[in-house]
Structures are given as structure tokens and as C-alpha cells.
Design brief:
Blueprint (H helix, E strand, L loop, with lengths): L6 H19 L1 H19 L12 H48 L4 H16 L1 E8 L6 E3 L10 H10 L3 E2 L1 H5 L5 E6 L4 E9 L8 H64 L9 H32 L7 E3 L1 H12 L8 E4 L7 E3 L1 H18 L6 E8 L2 E7 L32 H11 L4 E5 L5 E8 L12
Parallel strand pairs: 7-9
Antiparallel strand pairs: 1-2, 1-5, 3-4, 4-5, 6-8, 9-10, 10-12, 11-12
Helix pairs in contact: 1-2, 1-3, 2-3, 3-4, 3-7, 4-7, 7-8, 8-11, 9-10, 10-11
Length: 475
């Protein structure tokens, strides 16, 4: 059959064979087939046959063109074959990332995220991985899974966390450590570090592998951030329910206790009106009963006020008024409680009018002054001052007491929290909590700190707003 074909067609058949071999077996086999096709064409189809000799020098051109065409065909076919394999691999990895995203969307714990990440890295890259998360201070990194045995170079992991960039050290791979560390970038912050170690016989990771790992790190970061906010939301919800339940119980108890306590105070007062007068010992007992009943009634009143403030049932009766009037009323109201502690008041003459509820702000001042007198040494002064700072007026109450415990400034404003847990001073830890609720209801802030030269200082702010213009009366 081949004897009836033209030589040009035979050359085409040889080139077709080279193309088929390139598609099926790759570049090296196609190169060998190109060389063999030229030799076979020369031996079997060019005179003199069965010899490498050539009778017509023009066949050399045919051999050259045939060889170049074969080699070119082998090259482009192998390139296309390689591109097809890479496209198929990318498709598989994209499908893997899609399935990974679906799995991560349903995770409920960090441990589940770690297990899914390990399975993905093992399946797609035949590698090991570990996820490291920072502590609250972001100074140290800890494994999310204690069972993970992958050796980690902590310094490289910390560099990746702080710099937010991929860190790589091939020297660590030879020592058994993970050589690759990728930061887990989320929308708000870096949530941790992904450490990866490839198999011992693996080659240097390609750019596609690095891209796949970066995509994996992004998905892990989103999952960890979602779990973080879910945890915060659940904790907040539990806290709100707890506060609501506690406020309901406090409100009910306060209502039930207020009536009998008021009766006890009245009965104690009536003992002083009995004719003839009771013996002095009985009067002292009546006085003690009156004082303790009044103190207990005050505590119950605080509980009821706190419950109302938490429930938002208190309506502010704001009026524009000078601060010094409320300060004077509060000091006068405390009376004997400040007998051993002279109060030094420093209010600037140009202090603007403020819009606030006088009764509630007076309650704040009374609580702060009473606390200062309670914990300050006898015969030491209490300082009350105010100054304007931008759009607010800051009011400060200072004493020379023992101060507040370190690192508990914000905690002191929670309900039933006291500065000295085992203190013999009377109280249940509601005074500062009531102050905070009242100040925040006015749009201000309150905080506590220790004075550098000893003692405590509580500062609260009230917004200045736009006070009305007071016209001076003509002389």
C-alpha cells in the first residue's frame, strides 16, 4: 500500500505518528519518534533503499524540514498536554477549596477547623499542617490541637504573625521543622498562623502551591473569626439574660423588703416617744435598731434603683443648672458621714451650665463622697474638683485612702463587686455600679484610678451640650 503513496504523503504519515506519540507519551518519546521517523524514511523510502546514503541532496532539505516539524510538533503538543494537566489540577484544587469552604461554614469549634485543614492539606498536597493562635496579649502562639506532633519553629511563626507576611525557611525543612508559615488574615485582625511541612522527598513548592495555601489560610482565617464572634455573641447573650434575671429578682426582693423595713424604722423611732421614757439601755438598743434598719433600707433602696436603671425604667428629668448647687446639696445631705473628712471643693468660676437630672447626679456625688469617707484615714481631706475638657466637664473625687486594687479599675463598676473583698466596711458593692448607670444614662463616662502620691481618684464626665445664654441683669 505504501508503494502507491507519494513520498510527501508518507512524510505526513510519519509526522502524524509523531503527533500521536506526543499526545499519548509526552515530549521525550515524541523527540525520539521524530528522529526515528527521519531515519526510517531515509532507509525505506529514499533511494538507495536500506541505506543511509542519499542519491539526491534535496532529500537533506526534506529530512531537515521533517525533523524540525516533528520536534516542533512534539514541543507544542507536550506544552498543551502539560497545560491541560495543570488546568485539570487547578480544577481539582478549586473544587477542593469549594468543598473546604462548605465544610468550614458548618464548623462549631476550633478543633473541627483544625481537622478539616489537616485533611485538606494531606489530600491536596500530601503535607502536614498545624494552626497556631495567639494569646490575649498576642505575645505567644499556642497550638489549637495539643495532639499535633508537627515540630514548629516559634520564632518564624511569631515573625509571620507580627509582619502579616509569608515566612519561609528551607533550612528548617531539613531539620524536621515546618518550613512554611502563613498568617491567617481576617477582616479585623490576623487570627493566627498556618504552619506547613511537605513530604521529605517533595520538591520546592510551586507558585500554584503557594497560592493554594494562601487561599486555604484566608478560608481558615474567616472561619476562626466567625467562631470568635459567635463565642462573643453567645457570651453576651448569656450575660444579658443573667443580668435581666438578676434585675428581676432584685426588683422583686426590693419591693417585698421595702415595706417591712420602713415599718421597722418607724417602730424604732416610736420607742423614743413612749411615756414614761424607756431606760437608757433600752434607748441605746432602739437607736441601734433604728440605725441598722435605716442602713438596710438604704441597701434595699440601692438594689431597687439598680434594678430600675438596668431595666431602663428611669426617666431623666434634665434641666440646665450650675454644678455647684448639686455639689453643695450633696455635701449637706451626707452631714455626719463627712464629719471626720473636710471636703475641699474647687470649681472654676467659668464652669458652664450643664443639662442633667439633679437628683440622680446628686446621688452620684453622694455615693462617691461616701465611699471616699469610708475608706480614707480619719481626719484626712477629700477633694472635689471639676474642669472642662473639650465638649465635656470632668468631675473628680479624690481621697487619701488605700486606693483601688491594681488592674481592677473597670471591674469595680460591676454589680456586687467591692474594692476590698474581705473589707469590714459596710456595703454590698452597688454604689459604683449605680454611679456608672447614672453617668452613662447622661451620655458620660466614669473611671477609677490610683493617685501617684497615694489615694484614689474617681472621675466622671458630663456632656457640655449647648447651654442657654444667661443675660446679666442691669445694675
Amino acid at each position: 500500500m505504501l508503494g502507491h503513496l507519494d513520498l510527501a504523503n508518507i512524510v505526513m504519515l510519519f509526522l502524524l505518528a509523531v503527533l500521536v506519540i506526543a499526545v499519548k507519551l509526552g515530549r521525550n518519546a515524541a523527540v525520539l519518534a521524530s528522529i526515528l521517523s527521519v531515519l526510517l524514511f531515509d532507509v525505506f523510502f529514499v533511494a538507495p533503499r536500506f541505506s543511509l546514503a542519499v542519491s539526491d541532496i534535496q532529500y537533506l532539505v526534506t529530512f531537515a524540514v521533517m525533523l524540525v516539524t516533528g520536534l516542533t510538533t512534539a514541543h507544542f503538543t507536550s506544552v498543551l498536554r502539560q497545560k491541560a494537566l495543570e488546568a485539570e489540577q487547578r480544577e481539582q484544587r478549586t473544587e477542593g477549596l469549594y468543598q473546604l469552604a462548605r465544610q468550614l461554614a458548618g464548623t462549631l469549634t476550633t478543633e473541627q477547623v483544625v481537622e478539616i485543614a489537616k485533611g485538606f492539606v494531606k489530600e491536596q498536597l500530601a503535607a502536614e499542617c498545624a494552626i497556631l493562635v495567639p494569646d490575649d496579649l498576642r505575645k505567644n502562639l499556642a497550638r489549637t490541637s495539643p495532639a499535633c506532633s508537627l515540630p514548629i519553629e516559634s520564632h518564624l511563626a511569631k515573625v509571620a504573625l507580627e509582619s502579616g507576611k509569608l515566612v519561609r525557611s528551607d533550612e528548617m525543612s531539613g531539620m524536621g521543622y515546618a518550613p512554611l508559615y502563613l498568617p491567617l488574615h481576617a477582616s479585623m485582625r490576623i487570627r493566627g498562623v498556618l504552619a506547613v511541612r511537605f513530604a521529605d522527598n517533595s520538591t520546592e513548592p510551586s507558585s500554584d502551591t503557594i497560592s493554594l495555601l494562601e487561599a486555604l489560610a484566608s478560608l481558615l482565617a474567616v472561619a476562626l473569626e466567625r467562631l470568635h464572634y459567635v463565642e462573643i455573641a453567645q457570651a453576651t447573650e448569656v450575660k444579658m439574660l443573667t443580668e435581666r434575671l438578676r434585675s428581676s429578682i432584685l426588683s422583686a426582693l426590693s419591693h417585698d423588703l421595702r415595706t417591712p423595713l420602713t415599718a421597722m424604722v418607724g417602730l424604732a423611732d416610736s420607742l423614743f416617744l413612749i411615756k414614761p421614757a424607756l431606760p437608757s439601755a433600752a434607748l441605746e438598743t432602739a437607736q441601734a435598731l433604728h440605725e441598722q434598719s435605716a442602713r438596710l433600707a438604704g441597701m434595699v433602696g440601692n438594689l431597687l434603683d439598680m434594678a430600675r436603671l438596668n431595666a431602663g425604667e428611669v426617666t431623666l428629668r434634665r434641666e440646665w443648672q450650675p454644678l455647684e448647687e448639686v455639689v453643695g446639696a450633696g455635701i449637706k445631705l451626707l452631714g455626719n458621714a463627712l464629719a471626720d473628712h473636710p471636703v475641699k471643693v474647687e470649681l472654676p468660676a467659668d464652669l458652664p451650665l450643664l443639662e442633667f437630672d439633679a437628683v440622680l447626679v446628686e446621688r452620684v456625688l453622694c455615693n462617691l463622697l461616701e465611699n471616699a469617707a469610708k475608706y480614707a484615714p480619719p481626719h484626712t481631706s477629700i477633694e472635689l474638683s471639676a474642669q472642662r475638657t473639650g465638649n465635656t466637664v470632668a468631675v473628680m473625687v479624690k481621697d487619701r485612702g488605700i486606693g483601688f486594687p491594681e488592674h481592677r479599675g473597670d471591674e469595680l463598676f460591676n454589680m456586687f463587686v467591692r474594692g476590698q473583698a474581705e473589707s469590714g466596711k459596710p456595703g454590698v458593692g452597688l454604689g459604683l455600679a449605680i454611679c456608672k448607670a447614672i453617668v452613662e444614662a447622661h451620655g458620660g463616662h466614669i473611671h477609677a484610678e490610683n493617685r501617684p502620691d497615694g489615694g484614689a481618684c474617681v472621675t466622671f464626665t458630663l456632656p457640655v451640650g449647648n447651654p442657654p445664654v444667661v443675660e446679666e441683669e442691669p445694675a
